[in-house]
């Protein structure tokens, strides 16, 4: 099942419960615009490189569209469409005044020099600058992209449209970025876990954790889990993985990964593959890298009691069903990783007002929104006796549906 079919399956489950008509379902699911562009650039060795870039704009009923930009070899039209759809429900679940979008380029960034990466980014902006902007569609970082890339996007965009830092979020602090944006997704993940543990009457130090992905989301999640005295036994990434039954030293692992480009061969640990990660003997599994890693084939191997979707779409619909049968609680991506887009929203607000917030304000507002959203989702799940994902979709689709009808079709 493709990532888009997965997202559609989740949508249909909620739409069925809501009694949405087939016309309404079609209207809400169909993207407004899907663009595929050729991004050609001169490589350092003088050869011509040709890459394919995508931007999918899914829904505008609640405001301008918002969504990350992914640079990864596996990016394709269907994955971008699936991620754009997720953004529509996600922004609605945390009640931000946005619709959903997503973009990407099929490229392995490790194969490019810094100069090639900059030229690729600027060329992509040349191709899509007319369809994005502060009141249309605002990109942000995702897998393979970072604050530097957002700075190049802002700079290239202003060559066409003049100074307007709200055209992109996740920028460096020195260039109209927001305090707390880089840590936001990981911080949001841990806020949601804390809210869940409170409902379950559990404490962080009573549980063990395993993480897949040690990039932006994974590394900040690990950092904040450690602040709560949680024990992280396993971390894997694209280079491999490490395992220590007594708990990994996360501050040291962060330093090691920064120096070595990944976690592989970290001292004071055993190696662990990404396949072994799935069956890690821990309480909480946190996929924070790729989509589609927990599938019908491996869902029965999972030994954890909780799966926290820090990545987008890490659990396929079949695996989700198996987890439901096995009473493994899944905290869904559309809620768990919404901290990133929430602080992106704060950045956009600050840029539009030309007024900076300090870090405590960003963190407090993030905590308020994430905790409130978790509580709403939890209460719907309890009231309607449905899994948390279905509850989250009921909340998000309900908000988008009502805005669509009120705005007029
Ligand atoms: P990143 O590029 O900073 O890090 C990605 C991590 O995944 C790296 O540690 C990399 O080594 C690892 N990885 C890549 N391929 C892998 C593989 N085959 N097996 C195991 N690990 C692999 O990306 P990120 O921004 O941390 O994003 C991670 C996930 O979180 C994505 O699904 C993304 O869509 C989602 N997300 C990110 C944000 C954000 O603000 N950055 C917000 C919401 C959701």
Q: Which key features would you list for this structure?
A:
Rossmann fold, single chain, 2 domains, 409 residues
How would you summarize what this structure contains?
The chain has 409 residues and is α/β, with parallel strands linked by helices.
Please provide a written account of the structure.
It is a single chain. With 409 residues, this protein is of the alpha/beta class. It has two domains: 34-175, Rossmann fold (3-Layer(aba) Sandwich), CATH 3.40.50.10860; 180-409, Rossmann fold (3-Layer(aba) Sandwich), CATH 3.40.50. Helix content is 46%, strand content 17%. The chain has helices at 3-18, 22-29, 77-93, 114-128, 147-161, 184-200, 216-227, 250-260, 274-278, 317-325, 333-336, 339-353, 359-384, 388-407, and strands at 33-42, 48-57, 65-72, 99-106, 137-141, 208-212, 231-237, 240-243, 270-271, 284-287, 306-308, 329-331. Strands 9-8-7-6-10-11-12 form a seven-stranded mixed beta sheet, with helices on both faces. The protein has a five-stranded mixed beta sheet with strand order 1-2-4-3-5. Helix 1 (3-18) crosses helix 14 and helix 6 packs across helix 12. It is globular and about 55 Å long. The two termini are 32 Å apart. Bound molecules: nicotinamide-adenine-dinucleotide.
